[in-house]
Amino acid sequence: MDGKQIIEEDKLYVAGTYARFPVVFRDGKGCRLYDCDGREYLDCGSGIGVNVFGVNDGKWKEAVTEQLGMLQHTSNLYYTRPQADLAKLLCTRTGAKKVFFGNSGAEANECAIKAARKYGEEHGGRYKIVTLKNSFHGRTIATLAATGQEAFHRHFGPFPEGFVYAEPTTESVAACAADDACAVMIEVIQGESGVNVLPESFVKDVERLCRERGMLLICDEVQTGNGRTGHLYSYMAYGVRPDIVTTAKGLGGGLPIGACMLFGDCADVFGRGDHGSTFGGNPVSCAGACSILGRIDDKLLADVREKGRRFADGLKKIAGVTEVSGMGLMIGFRTAKPAAETASECIKRGLLVLTAHSRVRLLPPLTISNEEIDTALGILREVIDG
Ligand SMILES: Cc1ncc(COP(=O)(O)O)c(C=O)c1O
């Protein structure tokens, strides 16, 4: 079957929820992907921040295939070593006390919402969760309700009650966080809404408000986590101490996994039967995630910060680029053209980039080389400045 036939078949049978580019990928290595005609692409999207060590990474493949050869799935009625190992690794690296595993970012956030609601019920019957305008927390009904963007609320109501949307200002969060609020949930860098880096003073104010008013601080690190920003989790760059941290995307290095990390006295909020998942903590995903997390060390994080600077500095030298934002290898920028048009022009020239609202977004593999960054900048210059 050639690429054209695959696209036709996909259009016939797959639900039409995605605006796809007309490319069928077959394989790849590192930051290079190949379509079914053998054409090469430089990947600055990593499957929306997932393939942190690129495609076909040897060590990750070894960990995954070794586990596949032993046991692909049991259930959460039993224990498996990869799940226990990954939970221990996450707790050791972050100071969390307990982890719940799901299969995606939305599921990690669902778990955080449930944990916060149960904690709130036990601490004065509180249930409201303050989130920010322009946030994005997932596409299940509860995580859509948590998402502070009207556009995502069309068609799917009624939503569960108890979500309040604050402007990203201390005054607005303080006003929204009434006595019945149990938590404030933030992405310290809002990814889907355009790579908006929240100011440190604001994030610290949110933490202070949470402490003063007995609310939990939830950091959604689904996109920003696992080394993406040059910090293991981006809240670490802000020096705050969340009560709940969620992550997914890069953690699995390409296999589905989501994790909800519970800190401090929030750790024991769940009892038997409070939450569960058939596939959550799957041994193959967990074995791959152990390989990923185990290699995100200080050296790699320093490299990500350095490469992020190289990318951002290069972008700032392109005449048509404005408003470069981000941290590490999570970068957004604007051009005079619509972001989608820039992405289409790039793909024609063999470069994969993402969009987020009106910005072009770059989430390359953390292992991208300086030469590959310069190649990407060259293509972007051609597309943007002509
Ligand atoms: C910050 C944030 N939270 C949650 C999600 C949802 O993750 P998933 O698509 O894995 O459910 C995303 C996905 O883009 C995200 O960026």
Structural description of this entry:
It is a single chain. Strand 1 and strand 2 (32-35) form a beta hairpin. 37% of the residues lie in helices and 19% in strands. The protein contains twelve helices and 17 strands. The chain has helices at 3-13, 46-49, 58-68, 81-94, 105-122, 141-146, 170-176, 200-213, 283-295, 298-316, 339-348, 370-385, and strands at 25-29, 32-35, 40-43, 98-102, 128-132, 163-166, 181-186, 189-190, 196-197, 216-220, 244-247, 258-262, 321-327, 330-335, 351-352, 354-356, 359-362. By secondary structure, it is an alpha/beta fold. The protein has a seven-stranded mixed β-sheet, sandwiched between helices. Strands 1-2-3-15 form a four-stranded mixed β-sheet. The model has no long low-confidence stretch (mean pLDDT 97). It folds into two domains: 3-52 and 298-385, Aspartate Aminotransferase, domain 1; 60-295, Aspartate Aminotransferase, domain 2 (3-Layer(aba) Sandwich). Bound molecules: pyridoxal-5'-phosphate. Pyridoxal-5'-phosphate is lined by residues 104-106, 109, 136-138, 187, 191-192, 220, 222-223, 248.
